[in-house]
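Proteins fold reproducibly. Look at a concrete instance:
___
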Amino acid sequence: QVQLVESGGGLVQAGGSLRLSCTASGRTFSPYAVAWFRQAPGKERQFVAAITWSGDSMLNEGRFTISRDNAKNTVSLQMNSLKPEDTAVYYCAADHTHWGHLVNQYTYWGQGTQVTVSS
């Protein structure tokens, strides 16, 4: 079993950037696909980006970039040109069998980190 901890959230002005990190503990991260989702108040959890153990990735937002450092057990989400509508709790998720854009494809979840973008 792997435990996930997100960090890097905070308050930023529109047009700014943030870099979120997802760090794994308990087991090595390398065999796992990892994804970022976000959830705004009153809305469903939304796919943001995902990356396989080998580095293949998919993005739902062209302003963002996902990367991983298996040696450091970390996956990062670089978010640029942030907009107020990017405000949400951002969650890291992982799975050793599946990857994709669906919530139910991921077994392990972090507690989330708040991102707030002011206008």
User: Anything to note?
Assistant: The two ends are 40 Å apart (CA to CA).
